[in-house]
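Many introductory courses stop at the sequence. We go one step further.
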Amino acid sequence: MPRGRRPRAPEGETRPAPGRGKYYMISVVAKSYGIHPQTLRLYEREGLLKPSRTDGNTRLYSEDDLRQLEVILNLTRDLGVNLAGVEIILNMRRKMEQMQSEITSSWATYARNCRRRARRTGTRTRASRPS
């Protein structure tokens, strides 16, 4: 991509629009976390942060973006992880959260099926969530 101003989204392509909640401009976020705005732009370029944009192309950081930024800063500042490592760790966390969600859903389906079967047969069931 050429240097300079980032182009607006092409016709028909949508960028995430700000929803409810608080949003912060790049200067406020940079000052709050003691980092340079270029660092935030780098994190976006590397795919570590995905702030939403206004129609004027201004970056807006949500509360979720700020939580993600805190994780990134913890990994880089406190643990000495480089950006490639941060990307791997964030991807692994995302996959683990997805797997946990799938397990929870599967367990709920199993427990529901056990209760149905017990009602049909008139027996008691002990399908409860493991600790």
